[in-house]
Write a structure and sequence with these properties.
CATH class of the largest domain: Alpha Beta
CATH superfamily of the largest domain: Chloramphenicol acetyltransferase-like domain
Helix content: 25-40%
Number of domains: 2
Strand content: 15-25%
Number of strands: 17
Low-confidence stretches: none
Structural class: alpha+beta
Radius of gyration: 22 Å
CATH topology of the largest domain: Chloramphenicol Acetyltransferase
Shape: globular
Order of helices and strands: EEEHEEEHEEHHHEHHEEHHHEEEEEHHE
Mean pLDDT: 95
Distance between the termini: 28 Å
CATH architecture of the largest domain: 2-Layer Sandwich
Number of helices: 12
Largest sheet: 8 strands, mixed
């Protein structure tokens, strides 16, 4: 299907009240320097349910966003520099479009490469600079009255948990709910930033992970039954109760290792590999950091597999769990102490050096348990949550894990070099457990 998106309007949505002068300068926290991506784009697709007309939905979204920005005032500002945001209330870049088809037609066989049309910013995303918008939102209206909400909010201020906090608050106001959670804007208190040393260190690491290739994105969907089978296969004396994120991450890693070996069999070169996971620090600290804190309260875990030792699934799951469990309360205390500079710098340097020696890197991030499928603006819950396709010639192996609508499943958005991807999707073991690019309308427990 040839999807066409027609621009209807572009406007600035400003907070309902001016930001006080003493809050005009918002300092980013140290860990906001870790993630190089300008945005973590997300799309929420809503079917047309009930009797609410499109213009009523549009008015509801705008009015509730205006009131939301009063509390989330940095999102309505502009970047001052790499350390701060000017909370000048200039507003959110808010785009409205019409789509030339019914939502069900698109969801029946979604073209991943056309999804970016539903976003207010088009990939490849440029590096954010002084004066750029912090928040960009696009409301796409399908012929049936269904809606897709596309968001590109600067990753420098929001991680996945923060994005969830923002969306839940916005939706709560739209529904006139009294059960809304105000944002905590004190990330800089927990991890203050005085300069850009972490940006420089992390950029060196990330650059070792990027490579040339013809990168493509495919969706691997694991239902609850498949995940339970993977958990059974992964159980060992070391791992008694593996989580769904642990087993799916490790299984995709296992399939990727096999594809890499197949790809390199002609030159008899077998690469080492490394799996990294973005780890949320909030609940790992003691006492835990506020769940509603805005900022990138994240760190990077790393699990390694050497070509000399072929690991089975339980071994890989054990490696993944051990790597994540190292980031515990004691580790976070050290990050925040005087030794934090050396600790964090050493951690990122070790990952970068391992990758720069030719190891295959697979970067994972999990959007599970963020509650995106519960976000209801008053016209029902989303039928599908999506990321976007990354077809480009210079990228990194990236896997985004998110829950399916039934919650018990996992939808993995996998971006790899096309040659390796073709080998993985032809792997019969993968096909036993995962459906490749199924229609969101057919995903069941």
């Amino acid at each position: 299907m040839n999807i066409k998106v027609k621009l209807i309007s572009t406007e600035m949505i400003q907070p309902s009240s001016p930001t006080p002068n003493h809050l005009k300068n918002f300092n980013l926290c140290l860990l906001d320097q870790l993630i190089p991506a300008p945005y973590a784009p997300i799309l929420l697709f809503y079917p047309n349910l009930g009797d609410i007309k499109v213009h009523e939905k549009s008015a509801l979204l705008k009015k509730s966003l205006v009131d939301t920005l009063y509390r989330f005032y940095p999102l309505a500002g502009r970047f001052k520099d790499e350390l701060s945001i000017d909370c000048n209330d200039q507003g959110v870049n808010y785009v409205t479009t019409n789509v030339n088809c019914h939502l069900i037609e698109f969801l029946n066989e979604p073209n991943l490469e056309s999804i970016s049309q539903f976003l207010p910013c088009q990939p490849p995303f440029k590096v954010l600079a002084a004066g750029d918008y912090v928040t960009n939102i696009q409301i796409n209206v399908f012929k049936c009255g269904g809606i897709a909400i596309g968001l590109c909010i600067a990753h420098k201020i929001l991680d996945g948990v923060g994005l969830s906090t923002f969306l839940k608050y916005w939706a709560g106001l739209a529904c006139s709910s009294n059960d809304v959670q105000y944002p905590n804007l004190m990330a800089n208190y927990f991890f203050p930033a005085e300069d850009l040393w972490l940006r420089d260190t992390s950029m060196t690491m990330w650059s070792s992970m990027f490579k040339k290739g013809n990168f493509v994105t495919r969706r691997f969907v694991f239902n609850a039954s498949a995940i339970n089978n993977l958990k059974t296969m992964s159980t060992s004396s070391h791992i008694k109760h593996p989580t769904k994120v642990e087993v799916v991450s490790s299984f995709i890693w296992k399939c990727s290792i096999a594809a890499s070996k197949q790809k390199n069999c002609s030159n008899k070169r077998h690469s080492n590999s490394i799996l990294t996971h973005i780890v949320n620090l909030r609940k790992r600290a003691a006492p835990s950091l506020p769940e509603n804190i805005l900022g990138n309260l994240l760190w990077l875990s790393s699990a390694k597999n050497t070509a000399k030792h072929e690991m089975e699934l339980p071994d890989l799951v054990n490696q993944v769990r051990k790597s994540i469990s190292r980031i515990d309360d004691r580790y976070i205390k050290r990050m925040r102490s005087d030794e934090g500079f050396n600790l964090m710098r050493k951690s990122l340097k070790e990952i970068g050096e391992f990758c720069s020696k030719g190891a295959d890197h697979y970067g994972f991030t999990s959007w599970c348990k963020f509650g995106f499928y519960d976000i209801d603006f008053g016209f029902g819950k989303p039928i599908w949550i999506s990321s976007i396709s990354s077809r480009c010639l210079f990228f990194m192996n990236l896997i985004i894990l998110m829950e399916t609508k039934c919650v018990d499943g996992i939808e993995a958005w996998v971006t790899l070099d096309e040659e390796e991807m073709n080998m993985i999707v032809g792997n019969q073991e993968l096909l036993v457990f995962a459906s490749i690019d199924p229609s969101p309308l057919t995903i069941f427990p």
